[in-house]
Amino acid sequence: MTSAAEPTASAAPDSTYSLVVVSNRLPIEIEVSEDGTEGWRTSPGGLVTALEPMMRSSDGAWVGWPGIADRSFDPFENDGISIVPVRLSESELEDYYEGFSNDTIWPLYHDVIAPPRYHREWWEAYVRVNRRFADAAASAAAPGATVWVHDYQLQLVPRMLRDARPDLVIGFFNHIPFPPYGIYAQLPWRKQILDGLLGADLIGFQRLADAGNFSRAVRRLYGYPTRGVAIDVPAPDGKHRRVIAKHFPISIDAAAYEELARRPEIQERARQIREDLGNPQTIMLGVDRLDYTKGIAHRIKAFGELLADGSLSVEDVTLVQVASPSRERVGPYIALRDEIELAVGRLNGDFSTISHTAISYHHHGYPREEMVALYLAADVMLVTALRDGMNLVAKEYVAVRFDRDGVLVLSEFAGAADELKQAVLINPHDIDGVKAAILRAVAMPRQERLRRMRSLRRKVFDNDVDAWSSSFLRTLTEGAAVRPGIPDTLAGALKDLSRADNILVALDFDGTLAPHVDKPEDARAVAGTREAVQRLLDLDGVRVAFVSGRALVSLRHVSQPQTDVLLAGSHGIEVQLDTPEIELDLVTEELEQLDALARVLERISGSIDGTWIERKPAGLALHTRLATPRKAAAALKAARGELGTLLPGLTVRDGKDVIEFAVRASTKGDALARLRRHAGADRVFYAGDDTTDEDAFAVLRPGDVGLKIGAGDSLAGYRVRGPEDVPLVLGLIADARAAVAAEREAAAGA
């Protein structure tokens, strides 16, 4: 424990940092010793565990409130992490935290299980405090730093940071659910919250449904185009900034929990707990914050009815309920505590005996070691949340059970249910269903318990907290130098993809199959590409397609495709699908727009050296690769400004050293969807290098594989260094597909 600094006026940090984490609470809290001296100790919690090692190794700082009102502390270092405290007054805690965060946002985001309250003074405090956090983060962040903002208390911080420091890479993770639009729309400040979140580059959610709810709210309230996990947000320069809204299920340090569980003293404590409870045949356990979203009353009601109808007896089954204090100054929480304690008292009065208590109830928290002992002692874990972003207690119970025993009864409304499919899943509102699940868990045969727990543990250990944080930050910051070679994870994904009945291998051309060149007509695929494509074409159930922003005639010229290759040019406006004809049909109005577009771009290009025009059937592209940066910027600004006034309905698309204008809207995502339908593909592999390829990555489905060529932010799950690696990747697909065919042929012969 390090000593606490004397309170001083708030101060900016002396240094700046490449990684800044921002959360309502710091990862440390003040502890007062018996002699009255103060010191800092590390706070418990999965987020701290996940980020501590990373922050120590990456020159990181943590911005947050130190947990005590009306005191200021200078920035300091604690256990290898730079700490930047943010001061909050008592009145701000009442309005920003207890008020807007926990009496407005919390119930609203949890499906209005309790009615949210809307007060303008709470909102004003929320804005004011978010501004203070944003200012502290902006002061702590080095140029180009990554800033990771956490949770519902700080939803305005990303936009405030974006406006103050456009150089930053900004991520936000929402630890609680995000509600459906019909519920979210009740919020008076609904657009302001969305705008705040859209300041981030990456917005993470616990569940796929939460990310979808957010994107739908953006479409309804702002009308921004969304495609898959991508949202195109207008930027001040007239361009669009791509924001990713994606689910990243949070997890725990599973190995650390198992290590604790294997300690002899913890196992002895678990045996002692069972003995203290009268050694019942079955111990059921509930561990929750005392919160109306946790469904504590529902499990107590179900247990009470089972005792009342004789299905269970207190001699055989005991329920241990740990309900740690939560927001004890907020009215609904005060009422909830009274309700739960009254229910526990009544049930114990009705059913407890001298030697056996029906419910062992504990309204306080326990150290982690005691919790692990409780998990080991419990035969059945009850998680009956009415709505929960994740519920890490479920994962902690699984991680602790190194004996592979125990049964997890899990609410389908907890985020953990998306991953932990081998739990006994319940609808906590269905009391009869909860009762049936409890009886099933109590009577479950040992072999079934072992099978289920083995599967649950595999999921928890494969997707631990380190994998969660690494996945989020990798998605947020991808763009560092790419290592040469084919990653093992990519090779494994290609083997899985190759097992599908019908596969589509779709490939961008420039920058993917061919290096970028100054003259587009000189582009040619790297050596080995044609042979790799032919190997794929020779295999049953495999189709190959080239997808390009080029006009289709130009694409055919540079790619020289085999007859069976499907072609999509001009971002899908032109296609050639198993016929010699090119499909394209522009109307008179579009032809007139093309003429006007050509006149403007030819005049701009003619006056600026190093730029040239590429004509396409449904548009034109202004290339600036050979111009100086200053002249390139001038050309792009002139084109965007003049055409925005003259032809405001054009589709505008930015690429590498190029801006494209089209009279008909289409993207590589549209092209890929059409190709998938035509090929009847069960799985799709798509490779691309440009920002325009992100539209294709955005429409990939689970089981598909996206490959980014080179550096830069991307929705693709995998990447390689350059076009020279692509023939190797195609060869891996062909090898895997041939192996699958051989296996099937051998199986048929047998």
From TrEMBL:
One Pfam family in the UniProt entry: Glyco_transf_20
UniProt superkingdom: Bacteria
Protein family according to the UniProt entry: In the C-terminal section; belongs to the trehalose phosphatase family.
PANTHER family linked to this entry: BCDNA.GH08860, TREHALOSE-6-PHOSPHATE SYNTHASE
Protein name: Bifunctional alpha,alpha-trehalose-phosphate synthase (UDP-forming)/trehalose-phosphatase
